[in-house]
Automatic annotation (TrEMBL), chains A, B:
<dbReference type="Pfam" id="PF04452">
    <property type="entry name" value="Methyltrans_RNA"/>
</dbReference>
<feature type="domain" description="Ribosomal RNA small subunit methyltransferase E PUA-like">
    <location>
        <begin position="24"/>
        <end position="56"/>
    </location>
</feature>
<dbReference type="InterPro" id="IPR015947">
    <property type="entry name" value="PUA-like_sf"/>
</dbReference>
<keyword id="KW-0963">Cytoplasm</keyword>
<dbReference type="GO" id="GO:0070475">
    <property type="term" value="P:rRNA base methylation"/>
</dbReference>
<feature type="domain" description="Ribosomal RNA small subunit methyltransferase E methyltransferase">
    <location>
        <begin position="71"/>
        <end position="237"/>
    </location>
</feature>
<dbReference type="InterPro" id="IPR029026">
    <property type="entry name" value="tRNA_m1G_MTases_N"/>
</dbReference>
<keyword id="KW-0489">Methyltransferase</keyword>
<dbReference type="GO" id="GO:0005737">
    <property type="term" value="C:cytoplasm"/>
</dbReference>
<dbReference type="GO" id="GO:0070042">
    <property type="term" value="F:rRNA (uridine-N3-)-methyltransferase activity"/>
</dbReference>
<dbReference type="InterPro" id="IPR006700">
    <property type="entry name" value="RsmE"/>
</dbReference>
<keyword id="KW-0698">rRNA processing</keyword>
<protein>
    <recommendedName>
        <fullName>Ribosomal RNA small subunit methyltransferase E</fullName>
        <ecNumber>2.1.1.193</ecNumber>
    </recommendedName>
</protein>
<dbReference type="InterPro" id="IPR046886">
    <property type="entry name" value="RsmE_MTase_dom"/>
</dbReference>
<keyword id="KW-0949">S-adenosyl-L-methionine</keyword>
<dbReference type="InterPro" id="IPR046887">
    <property type="entry name" value="RsmE_PUA-like"/>
</dbReference>
<dbReference type="InterPro" id="IPR029028">
    <property type="entry name" value="Alpha/beta_knot_MTases"/>
</dbReference>
Length: 252, 252
């Protein structure tokens, strides 16, 4: 069933009007009609099955909650050095499918591309749309938030249960244990920093380490700047969503 | 250090001449000179540090083996339904970074795109180049093999220790345990089938199930056709490369 998002908070039995972008997609593109059903996830990250009662403006009756969560049990923030070309869109789209909660782009010392603050707002708005589309398509319960900070310093004091930095030199040195050790602590939130194509400067890694970011290796192969966050998200899903189910079965 | 591949089998102390594509990249693009070092992985999947002794034709002296393997401990074959546009290139590039051993593209019933056998050879040759570049960049010890088969039937009787199919309906039904159960058997080879955008037809899944392919869910979010094989490869890496290191440490 098609899934959309609303900024409202939904309750079963009530009606809700969806915004014009959703109306255009559902009514004009997909030609949905009165009595057709669609899923709507609300501002609280709760999803419901709804029935269309009116198409202009698009209005739905909230039928029943969808109990199964589609959210990673760890709220993951990825912080990505700016890359050239269309990589930011690809990072956001795939990271959304893989369950990311927040994506922050940041200018770093060794990056070969840089966003100017006055043009970043437009880029972020475009990337937020990419996140929204990918969240609908992958049946997320929340749309990840995309933002930009001009300096890595802004990331140093963000709060999270676990903080890691994907440092290529750690991977090359054969570091394979730290990510799992971090996940064993059952963090409810995790922030992970990824360098751009040129990597992070040693001074940047050192600054991150000083405030508690731990270097993690992501397997023995050298991953491109966009692949590394996807690997991390898939690894967290594997550890928390596939294994947990597994231990449930073993215990039952 | 830059990594290249050779079809030869290398031995320490011997000299080897690399092919003209490698010569162009190393000498013309990167401006490497006599006495510069580069890594070369040979036909056996063994990698060595080498020193350039001549630039035309590019000739190296084999100095020493690189003991650390960059290959997934499970030889993974992914079989992908044909998708529209440039997705095949993206699938091959990222799957190579994530450790795939073989990528097979196949026409399926519900696909919205189809490769004609007479044009497939050219596509496969191009994709093989993508695999080679990605293997160099990610420091693989082997270049994954790319191929095309016109019918899914050709896949039914391929040999592998484990055979899975990523079936969207299984994921929707909340199947979260099967992949880990499969990996617990410590397969040395695994073949995984992924549908195109339209998904696999139930009859196709049924045919796969009949010959021992097991339906696996890849977490609660709905992944696009290109994202699903990346998730699988990252999950296998997490289970075999991150966890194994972990248990080594626990035991030592």
């Amino acid at each position: 069933m098609q899934r959309y998002f609303t900024d409202a908070t939904l309750t079963v039995g009530a009606h809700a009007t969806l915004n014009s972008t959703v109306e255009h997609h559902a009514v004009t593109v997909l030609r949905m009609q009165v009595d057709d059903q669609l899923e709507v996830a609300d501002a609280q990250g709760h999803a419901f099955v709804t029935t269309i009662t009116k198409t202009a403006p698009l209005t739905v009756r909230v039928e029943r909650p969808i109990p199964q969560s589609h959210e990673l049990p760890v709220a993951v923030t990825i912080v990505c050095g700016i890359s050239k070309g269309q990589k930011a869109e690809l990072i956001v789209q795939k990271a959304t499918e893989l369950g990311v909660r927040q994506v922050i782009f940041v200018n770093t010392q060794w990056a070969t591309a840089r966003w100017l603050p006055d043009r970043a707002a437009k880029k972020v708005a475009r990337l937020q749309q990419v996140a929204q589309s990918a969240a609908e398509q992958s049946h997320r319960d929340r749309v990840p938030q995309v933002s930009f900070v001009p300096l890595l310093d802004a990331v140093l004091h963000m709060e999270a249960d676990a903080k890691v930095v994907a440092y290529e030199e750690s991977a090359k040195a054969g570091e394979h244990a730290q990510l799992i050790q971090t996940l064993r602590q059952q963090p409810r939130s995790l922030i992970a920093v990824f360098g751009p194509e040129g990597g992070l400067a040693p001074a940047e890694v050192s600054n991150l380490n000083d405030v508690g970011f731990v270097n993690v290796g992501l397997g023995p192969r050298i991953l491109r700047t966009e692949t590394a966050p996807w690997y991390l998200l898939a690894a967290i899903s594997t550890y928390t969503e596939l294994q947990e189910e597994q231990s449930d079965r073993v215990n039952s």
